[in-house]
Amino acid sequence: TRRRGGSTTSEGTIFVGTLARPRQVVQLGLTSASNRTDDGNDDGEPQRFILAQGHLGRGLDVGIATMRRGEVAAFTLAPGLAKGGPWEACSADFGEDVLAAAIVLEVELLDWVSRVDLLEDGTVIKSVLRRPDDQRRPTIGQQCLLSCRVVLSETFTTLSATSELLHRISEFGVEVSDPCPIDHKLMDRALISMKRGEVSSLSCEAKALFGRCFALPENVELAAAMFCELELKEFVEESDVSFEKDVSVIKRSLCSRDAWPKCLDAGTCTLRVSSVRDQDQELVSDLLLTFIIGNGEVCDVLEMAAVSMRRHEVATFTCSSCRSLEEPRLSLAKASGLTLSLRVDAYEEGPGEMARRDEAKLEFLSARKDVAVGLVKAGRHELAAYRFGQVHEALGYLDGYRGVQGGAARTRRVSELKVACLLNRALCLLRARNFRRALLTCDKVLEDEEQPFNVKALFRRAQARLGLGDCQFAFRDAHAAADLEPKNVEVRRLLAEIRAKLQEEGADTQPMYAKMCSGLGMLPHPLDVD
Cα-flanking dihedrals φ and ψ of residue 363, to 5°? Predict the structure, then answer.
């Protein structure tokens, strides 16, 4: 048996091939099933057969279901399992007893086409005509760009053809008013089952294709056999690409493929700014920027965009933050509520992607931590916090050095780097006034068994809680940090600030509690009430 890769076949799949006499190689191709002859296929022309439908015989139905595309296999069929196949005609040449004995068939599976009962009632059969070049499927609510061609099967007359059709997949049961050449619900069901770049055909009757809401084309009956050819070219994917997922930057991917290389930290990205628009006004057009991702050479929005894109990808980004678009090369007077159209023209791998051994990866991550420290000094706190978080996450894959020579020292170094990244990230988040994220980051440090009383983590968690207005817990953290380092000036100053805040809150609430307590002695005694 030889296998050349491909996809495993399954029951109900169309197999494309020629069935020859025993011991002959089965050739496969793409022709109509109606061309299949009953004389043993001596012409050698490729044919189309349907698995588990009695076209191949029971034995070969079971055997081909175990093959992959491009595989050549020899099947030994027991007596009786060869019955039902087209090669039964060979009994005229070799006698009736040839099918009563065990026979050997060599089969080469060149191709197969997937067939799906789309509505699970046999009315609409979907066949894949061209396999997708991407693995992602659209979901409900996404807008799809597709081509659609409706053909009458009997005469091959094209009733309608659209090369570029925009269709938004709606929730099931929701009526839509967008123009669509076929029934909306059928179109939605077909698109959800397709992948980007796929071409499929829907075979059904006219009443199933057009539905109840459509008037049938002229001279087309309800029971007329139809097929609709669909090509899913693109679909729009929306995602939040802001550093802290606060919906400040929304990405709409217009053209992307999973096979395209992803832009990563420290790689060199060439980004084309096609346009920057403020509603209907174009502020910037056709600007080319080349920079190293993560080094702070461009503004935060462009850093967010680059690290979320792939080479050759086209996307738009809507920014609602004023500080994120402070880019001198864009020369923007207004820095919020803008839409950027970007394309990655080129991308070169950075040292992180070239590092293969764990020691090289550790050196790279240590260098990236130092770059993030430089961003803190430059006042790029949001970008620095994101970079510290990414380094900490990557270090989590390098801390398993048990049983390795020198593993204890490396594990200690990785642990120290992870704690330093978390503490620096908390500092950046505090300066960016993102107190909730800073609180969660400090919790990660204090949850570590080796860092239960980390003074910096306690101190910064107290600052985060004070920023959130939780003075009681902030006082507890600050008091614990002061007990560990009584001479720490910053901790004592924070403790005094929290005490003053608590006194202010007590002074504000004292009149309310006094009024509540004044009425306690004025209530009637329960025995005096009738």
Answer: -65, -40
Q: List phi, psi (to 5°) of 285.
A: -145, 140
Neighbours of 486 (CB within 10 A): 9
Give the start-end residues of each E strand in 55-131: 72-77, 103-108, 111-113, 115-117, 125-130
Strand (E) positions, 109-209? 111-113, 115-117, 125-130, 143-152, 157-168, 199-205
Closest to 60 measured CA to CA, from 33, 111, 30, 20:
20
Side-chain-side CA neighbours of 393 within 13 Å: the count stands at 9
Separation between Cα atoms, residue 364 and residue 350, nearest integer Å: 10
Which of left, alpha, beta for 286 (phi over 0: left; psi -120 to 50: alpha)?
Answer: left
Give the HSE-up count for residue 40: Cα atoms under 13 Å, Cβ half-sphere: 14
DSSP calls for 335-399: -SSEEEEEEEEEEE--HHHH--SHHHHHHHHHHHHHHHHHHHHTT-HHHHHHHHHHHHHHHTTS-
Residue 2 DSSP one-character state: B
Q: Decide: residue 318, CB within 10 A, 0-12 exposed, 13-18 middle, 19+ buried.
A: middle
State the Cα–Cα distance between residues 116 and 203, nearest whole angstrom: 10
Q: List residues bridging with 284 in a β-sheet.
A: 276
Q: How far apart are CA 437 and CA 425, in angstroms?
A: 9
Contact 11, 105 (CB under 8 A): no
Token pair for residue 237? 């994917």
Q: Measure the CA–CA gap between 206 and 217, rounded to whole angstroms.
A: 9
In which order are the strands placed within the sheet that holds 14-16? 48-50, 14-16, 111-113
H or E stretch including 50? strand 48-50
Torsion angles phi and psi, residue 436, rounded to 5:
-65, -45
Measured in whole angstroms, how far is the alpha carbon of residue 494 from the centre of its chain?
44
CA angle at 428 for the pair 422 and 429, rounded to the nearest 5°: 90
Q: For 211-228, b where at least 16 C-beta lie within 10 A, e where not — what string?
A: eeeeeeeeebeeebebbb
pLDDT tens sequence for the chain (530 residues) = 444 444 444 444 444 443 333 332 333 332 333 333 344 444 455 666 777 666 777 777 788 878 887 888 888 877 767 666 665 655 555 555 555 667 777 777 877 777 888 888 889 999 888 889 888 999 988 999 999 999 998 888 898 899 999 999 987 655 555 678 888 889 999 999 999 999 999 999 988 888 765 667 777 888 889 999 999 999 999 999 999 998 989 999 999 999 999 999 999 999 999 998 887 788 888 999 999 999 999 989 999 999 999 999 999 999 887 667 777 777 765 566 789 999 999 999 999 998 888 889 999 999 999 999 999 999 999 999 999 999 999 998 886 655 555 577 888 888 899 999 999 999 999 999 999 999 999 999 999 867 788 999 999 999 999 999 999 999 999 999 999 999 999 999 999 999 998 888 766 666 665 666 666 656 565 666 55
Q: How many angstroms separate the first and last alpha carbons of the chain?
A: 99
Taking only Cα atoms into account, the Rg of the chain, rounded to an integer number of angstroms, comes to 34
